[in-house]
Specification:
The protein has about 800 residues and is of the alpha+beta class. Helix content is about 40%, strand content about 20%. InterPro entries: Acyl_CoA_acyltransferase, Aminotransferase_I/II_large, AON_synthase_class-II, BioF2-like_GNAT_dom, PyrdxlP-dep_Trfase, PyrdxlP-dep_Trfase_major, PyrdxlP-dep_Trfase_small.
């Protein structure tokens, strides 16, 4: 089978960011001539600045500015030498002050990203292992990539999930020396804290556990000498099993980063060997001078006065928010506040409204947060005055419900997305009475002719759905039992359907559409745990069917509103079923749908290409040959036609139990060999149901006796085909004996015999489905690019699979 072309994660992020950029929300430019910190000029407007990470406002401190200016005058704009040879004169002073702040040896780096690249490959040895919190900063994750090349085991856990962390520790402790858990001290989106006390408790229970904190967002505004949240939570002294990163930028007011390391020998090795420390340029004199002056402030009582001022502002803002219905995601004493909007569309609307009112805030967007957890990130600094904060909250109180209403959502839906308590008055949601909504859990309650008229021609017809419901029910294994959910939304007067679709709920392998290398790695782990990295998915259509699973009447003036109603219905179903994700499948590129789905919290991913054949009007093989391209005709003459007489081709409608089990084993051969579309096996019951169902037939290939030297002559290939009453022939599954597949071109012959059979039955179309598009194209199929839209409850599985892909 040809390898599936997989979606590039960069493309997905690019689409999300490009959409936000086109809406004037990302990639903006400040137009300030002189910057004060309290306001920022965007376009031609001065906006109150609630988006800074300079929480104490030291970047505007006169003393830091003057020190930077003097350094430029004395030493120039840069000191262009590697620190391996010599550091410029201000470095030694800075290191001494930082050592005094942390009371440990330190390493100063150009920035935290280069710092992690220097420290992590040096501190973590080949015999160690790493566990990442899946929300730890990108710069940490990026540096860990260097360890995978060396074969260092890298695992990932859900955000701050201590139970999952302990499970990973238990799995690793007998296999490795040290186990490093890497985590942020304060997380930049929601402003939540690392569970430091619990982590230290685990490290006492498991002495192999070492901790690596990236505390750049906890720096300066918290802790003794402003050394950050993590060190304060550690009791003010750094244990031997902890490495701590702080920043000299952001709240510190200068530039650079600092590693605090209690182990002096390890600090020496990092300073000596850390790649970016050896081969990258050093900090500019102005940055070091500003950092020196900031360090003076951090070593003086003044830092506590500044921290207290900020703390009072944070408390005041918390108090203002506590009197509102705004969905604050994480309430704590952090200067980072996150107001959830749920969908990107609501986030866009809300941020635009606040901008018009004169406030600059940040949009929290995928991949920093799950796409359904879009929201507004507000940061409080000493620059912000109480009157400005009060005006911001008043603006949010006024505009938030308007943004919700204008984008077709409500507070309950947002709170549901963030697992926040519902507001009392919104616990009971009313579904719009403008439309008639039919919801069923079986096709048997849906009128057959109506289903077949609107949707049955595009995927499985009514009988096909009834077949699936029967075959995928009352089976032994969880993955063999599916639930079906049908939606019909009607215009109330005529009762004519405006939208028809169905969803299945079943267990997926999380790597189903991942590269083959990912599935190979995971299948090794599934030998011990069959359900490793699997989860329940609510999927438009089903993984058994392929085609257009959504009928929408686009001539209906308010069809977009009807789609939004479907999403509301799905959210209610999601509450009941709790899937890991919702997948909308098998769409061709469509700018209108793409915009709607994205605004409602779905991100686009590339699907394997779909293959169809519509040209079945030929009356002979010679006529068929003329429909092929010159190159495909050569392929047909060399790789397909000469092998046909090697086979006995039999069309079967029913088979004996023994033969059916053999055909099932051929299907299993292909499934196990096709990691490009990694699925659970269908139960054998499904194949017995095929054998009893008049709409199914099997194209079975036997090698003629002169080509088959086996004692028992059995089928070497089979195509399981469904006959759609609307005139579509559907080869749904394939099976092969790989001992004969290359020698006799079994797969190509199955494709050709499928084409001949569809023509003989006078079908108008063949739905060849996905995968192996290269082979199908050569026999005359049209290849159609397809996309899906995914809404995951979090980014954990996506990030975990990405890690496995990079191994």
């Amino acid at each position: 089978m040809a390898k599936i072309k997989h979606n590039n994660f960069i493309d997905t992020v690019d689409e999300v960011f490009s959409d936000a950029t086109n809406r004037g929300i990302l990639h903006l430019y400040s137009r300030d001539i002189k910057y004060s910190g309290s306001t920022i000029k965007v376009g031609n407007r001065d906006l109150y600045h609630f988006g800074t990470t300079g929480y104490l406002g030291l970047e505007q401190d006169k003393r830091l500015k003057e020190a930077a200016i003097r350094a430029i005058e004395n030493f120039g704009t840069q000191f262009p030498l590697s620190r391996t040879y010599i550091s410029h004169p201000l470095y030694e002073e800075l290191e001494e002050k930082l050592r005094a702040m942390y009371n440990t040896p330190v390493v100063v780096t150009k920035n935290s990203t280069l710092g992690h690249l220097a420290v992590i490959p040096t501190a973590i040895r080949d015999e160690d292992a790493v566990i990442l919190d899946h929300q730890v900063h990108w710069s940490v994750q990026n540096a860990v990539q260097l360890l995978k090349v060396r074969g260092v085991p890298v695992e990932m856990i859900r955000h701050s999930n201590m139970e999952m962390l302990e499970q990973k520790i238990r799995e690793l402790k007998g296999k490795v020396s040290k186990i490093w858990y890497m985590v942020d001290g304060v997380y930049s989106m929601y402003g939540d804290f690392a569970p430091v006390e619990e982590l230290m408790s685990l490290s006492r229970k498991y002495p192999q556990l070492h901790l690596y904190f990236d505390d750049v967002h906890g720096m300066s505004w918290k802790g003794k000498n402003g050394t950050g949240y993590a060190l304060e939570a550690l009791g003010g002294e750094l244990p031997d099993n902890v490495l701590l990163f702080g920043t000299l930028s952001k709240t510190f007011g200068a530039s650079g980063a600092v590693l605090s390391c209690a182990n002096k020998e390890l600090q020496r090795k990092i300073k000596t060997y850390g790649g970016p420390l050896t081969f990258s340029a050093q900090l500019e004199p102005a940055s070091v001078a500003a950092a020196n002056r900031s360090a003076d402030i951090h070593l003086s009582p003044e830092i506590y006065r500044l921290q207290e001022e900020l703390s009072e502002k944070i408390s005041y803002f918390n108090k203002l928010l506590s009197g509102t219905d705004l969905p604050l995601v994480a309430k704590n004493e952090s200067p980072v506040f996150y107001i959830g909007t749920g969908t990107p569309l609501t986030g866009y609307n809300f941020i635009k409204r606040l901008t018009k009112e004169g406030f600059f805030v940040n949009l929290g967007l995928f991949p920093a947060v799950p796409i359904k957890n879009t929201g507004i990130r507000i940061t409080i600094s000493r620059h912000n005055q109480e009157e400005e904060m009060k005006k911001l909250v008043e603006a949010m109180i006024f505009h938030y419900p308007l943004a919700l209403k204008e984008t077709g959502t409500d507070n309950t839906r947002v709170r549901r997305a963030f697992r926040l308590p519902y507001l009392e008055e919104e616990k009971k949601e009313s579904i719009t009475e403008k439309y008639i909504i039919d919801f069923e859990t079986t096709i048997n309650k849906i009128e057959k002719d109506e289903w077949n008229s609107y949707i049955g021609a595009n995927c499985f017809d009514w009988d096909g759905q009834a077949f699936l419901e029967k075959a995928l029910n009352d089976n032994d294994l969880p993955e063999e039992n599916w639930s079906f959910y049908y939606f019909i939304i009607r215009e109330p007067k005529s009762k004519k359907p405006v939208l028809i679709t169905y969803f299945t709920f079943n267990i997926w392998k999380e790597d189903m559409l991942s590269p083959e290398s990912v599935s190979h790695a995971l299948e090794e782990k599934r030998k011990e745990d069959p359900y490793y990295m699997t989860s329940n998915v609510l999927n438009m259509g089903s993984i058994f069917t392929e085609g257009n699973h959504l009928y929408i009447d686009r001539d209906y003036p308010e069809w977009k509103e009807v789609l939004v109603i479907l999403f509301r219905e799905l959210e209610a179903l999601e509450q009941k079923l709790k899937p890991s994700m919702i997948v909308l499948r098998d769409f061709e590129e469509d700018n209108h749908l793409n915009s709607i789905f994205h605004e409602q919290g779905f991100m686009q991913i590339k699907m394997p290409e779909s293959c169809i054949m519509n040209n079945l009007s030929w009356n002979s093989i010679e006529e068929y040959r003329t429909t092929l391209s010159t190159r495909s005709r050569r392929h047909f003459s060399k790789e397909v036609e000469p092998f046909e007489d090697k086979f006995e081709i039999v069309i079967k409608y029913k088979t004996s139990e023994g033969e059916l089990r053999h055909l099932y084993s051929l299907y299993q051969n292909v499934r196990k060999n096709n990691y490009g579309l990694n699925t659970f096996a269908y139960p054998i019951k499904l194949f017995f149901e095929m054998s009893e169902n008049p709409n199914w037939e099997f194209i079975v290939l036997y090698l003629k006796e002169e080509h088959d030297d086996r004692e028992k002559r059995e089928a070497v290939g089979v195509m399981f085909c469904y006959k759609n009453k609307a005139g579509t022939y559907v080869p749904s599954l394939v099976g092969m004996d790989y001992k004969f597949s290359r020698r006799f071109q079994v797969y190509r012959q199955l494709l050709f015999q499928t084409i001949k059979r569809a023509r003989a039955l006078d079908f108008k179309r063949i739905d060849f489905g996905i995968t192996a598009s290269f082979e199908k194209r050569k026999l005359g199929a049209t290849v159609i690019p397809k996309v899906a839209y995914v809404q995951a409850k979090d980014n954990f599985y996506m990030e975990s699979l990405d890690w496995i892909r990079k191994e």
